[in-house]
Amino acid sequence: MYEDRKDQALTTWHKLLERPEIRMTAQEQYEELLRLAEEYLNQGFIDRDERKRLVTEAARRYARAVDGVGSGT
């Protein structure tokens, strides 16, 4: 049961990373990804190293989105 909940939580996180909600800005997406990572840590689904990986992945995605806006894409 625990593994199912963890898998479902991480699937939700990665779906948001790949396909943000309609009308969600890059900043809103980034903040929601960070919130979810913190929530998953607090619920015991992930450990601190896993949280760090998720935060790093979210930061990279946000940086690409911001760079894309600055270069006219």
Describe the model.
It is a single chain. This protein has 73 residues and is mainly alpha-helical. It has a domain at 27-68. The chain contains 3 helices and no strands. The longest helix has 23 residues, at 48-70. It is globular and about 40 Å long. The mean pLDDT is 91.
Report low-confidence residues grouped into runs of 5 or more. none
- Total of helices: 3
Secondary structure: helix percent: over 70%
Strand content: under 5%
Span of the ends, CA to CA: 43 Å
The description of the largest β-sheet is: none
The Cα radius of gyration reads 13 Å
Mean pLDDT: 91
Shape: globular
Q: How many β-strand runs? A: 0
Can you tag this structure with a few keywords?
single chain; 73 residues; mainly alpha; 78% helix; globular
In short:
Helices cover 78% and strands 0% of the residues. The protein is mostly helical and 73 residues long.
Draw up the topology in text.
Blueprint: H1 2-18, H2 26-42, H3 48-70
